[in-house]
Amino acid sequence: MDYLLIDNISRKYYSNSCQHKIQYGTAGFRTRAEHLNYVLYRMGILATIRSKFCAAAIGLMITASHNEESDNGVKLVDPSGEMLEAAWENIANNLVSASDDELIHVLRETINHYNIKEDAEATVIVGRDTRKSGSMLLEAAIKGIENSKGNVRDFGIITTPQLHYLVVCINTNHQYGDPTIEGYISKLSNAFLGNRNAQEKKQYQSQLYLDAANGVGAIAARKFTEKLENSINIDIFNDGSGVLNSKCGADYVKIYQTLPLNSPTEPYFKCISIDGDADRIIYYYSDQFQKVHLLDGDKIAALIITYFKELLPLTGLSIQLGLVQTAYANGASTNYVSEILKVPISFTSTGVKYLHHEAQKFDVGVYFEANGHGTVVFKEEIVNMVHAAIKDETITEKKRKATIKFSRIIDMINQSVGDALSDMLLVETILYEKDWNVEMFDRIYTDLPNKQLKVKVKDRSIIKTENAERTCLSPIGLQQKIDSLVSLYSKGRAFIRPSGTEDIVRVYAECDDAVAVNKLAAEVALAVHQLADGIGPAPVIPNN
Ligand code: G16
Q1: Mind listing the pLDDT tens digit for each residue in 336-382?
Q2: Which long-range contacts (CB under 8 A, 24 or more apart) does 7-14 make?
């Protein structure tokens, strides 16, 4: 490790002089792009050290996903394709908060603490979304990697889930798939096409309208379009010609419960919104009264569980199924899965990094955040069992067919992280098999009316929560206030939490009345504004 070089380049080009406070949040470091140069340089170094420590390739993705175009961010991906291990998030925080004078000391301390061999091989797999600031930040990351003697494999402009996929492929010696973007598209498409039969469908809609949030997902979706043109027809809008995430994309549609810009308005068209780095997906349609119906992450998870509950018994294999949700999960979805489908549910804090690990406790763990971020994870023993059953000549033809179908489902899912396009293929597979249109999909349960708001406060770090973010511990008195507000609403529920990706506090409310829920959300937002030092105008409570 050439500490002198690292130090010189840091002071000369990537100085931490802006004193901007930043933490490794829900999905890495995320803030205004102009504050991130030194962060990327340091994360390039950290990724290299982590790669030396793990003796495996590490991923580094430059993206701010659903945030506005002027933001950017970086997250590191561990060798198995998962988010960076929690203990290393602290190291990332120490490294990024170190002054220029402290940087080398923090680096040396980490290397000694973890007994890292400085001359070990290191590979960092790099990708970025379409943000203009991406190329400048990439340069900083590459400098950090190269100066700490790591090898860079730059895959250019790719989606976040594609980067996760590439990391897994490279670290499993291509067992998970071919480590190229073509390999990714082929693996998922072939599995999807394999489960398509020639049966005539009466209700299924093969026409899809896809809002790509003007982000990198448009590029990936176009590649799928070419491969799948004989089975589904994907019309892409917000395809990169407009402003990233501006009045479009999964986050916008979910939070504002409205159509994105340029969306078709014809009733019952099957529409999809993905986000700026294509790791979230929301289905939606509007009815003949122009009412927008959202089929969010909760409903997608419920569809997947419903399907697995039907398919798995046909394989004859004994497989335990579970779901992981967060506090944002609509009460109706939780009720449907636990009471009607009788499938166990665990709850975690917001962040795929938490849901993913919890889901791994089940044989087949489905996890979804209501915002559309989710996937399915399969225990290795289950995958092996499925492969063995397919080869087993003693099982019935019916069981074999079901098992083959299930093994293709495994292949079509990007197990490393939520992947909007892989999730789309899975949903389309299920709808096709059930011969359902989007309205039939919507009918599996009826959402409780819900509302999300954002409140700006002086310092959101004063807000502390527990119980998977469902209880607010500080500021003192806020939870009691929320409880007393909620108690006035039938089936009322509300919680607040500081966002880990934006400088805001999020407010969630639900109850059984579509008008009243707006009032409840505003009342809770006002309580946050009053008790947590809100800045800007106070939230206004609607009259009815
Ligand atoms: C990221 C995380 C998600 C999380 C979302 C919002 O998504 O990966 O797990 O739900 O941020 O987080 P918060 O409420 O803390 O702002 P993305 O799509 O923005 O990377």
Answers
A1: 999 999 999 999 999 998 999 999 999 999 999 999 999 999 999 99
A2: 7/103, 7/104, 9/41, 9/143, 9/147, 10/38, 10/41, 10/42, 10/100, 10/103, 11/100, 13/37, 13/41, 13/140, 13/143, 14/38, 14/40, 14/41, 14/42, 14/140, 14/143, 14/144
pLDDT in tens, 229-253: 889 999 999 999 999 999 999 999 9
Which protein residue has the closest C-alpha to ligand 1 atom 4? Answer: 351
Q: Kindly give the interhelix angle for 103-113 and 3-13, rounded to the nearest 10 degrees.
A: 140
| Residues having CB within 6 Å of any atom of ligand 1 | 26-27, 65-66, 275, 279-280, 350-352, 369, 371, 373, 499-502, 506
Separation of 356 CA from ligand 1 center, angstroms?
13
Paired strand residues for 1: none
Identify the CA nearest to 206 among candidates 405, 411, 425.
425
d(CA 438, CA 431): 8
Q: Are 92 and 45 in contact (CB under 8 A)?
A: no
CA-proximal residue: ligand 1, atom 14 (nearest):
499
The owner of tokens 């349609």 is: 285
Transcribe 76-115 into DSSP letters.
EE-TTSSBPPHHHHHHHHHHHHS-TTTHHHHHHHHHHHTT
Other Cβ atoms closer than 10 A to 538: 12
Output the CA–CA distances (angstroms, integers) from residue 28 to 23, 86, 335, in the order listed: 8, 11, 32
100 touches 15 (CB < 8 A): yes
Query: Cα(424)–Cα(427) distance, rounded to whole angstroms?
Result: 5
Which one, of 182, 176, 180, lies nearest residue 163 by Cα?
180
Helices and strands (H, E) in the chain, number of each type: 18, 19
Q: Using CA atoms in the order 22, 28, 31, 33, what is the torsion angle rounded to 10 degrees?
A: 120
Of residues 510, 506, 499, 511, the one with CA closest to residue 539: 506
Torsion of CA 299, 176, 213, 33, to 10 degrees: 120
Helix 181-194 × helix 160-171 angle, to 10°: 100
496: helix, strand or coil: strand
Is 65 part of the annotated catalytic residue set?
Answer: yes
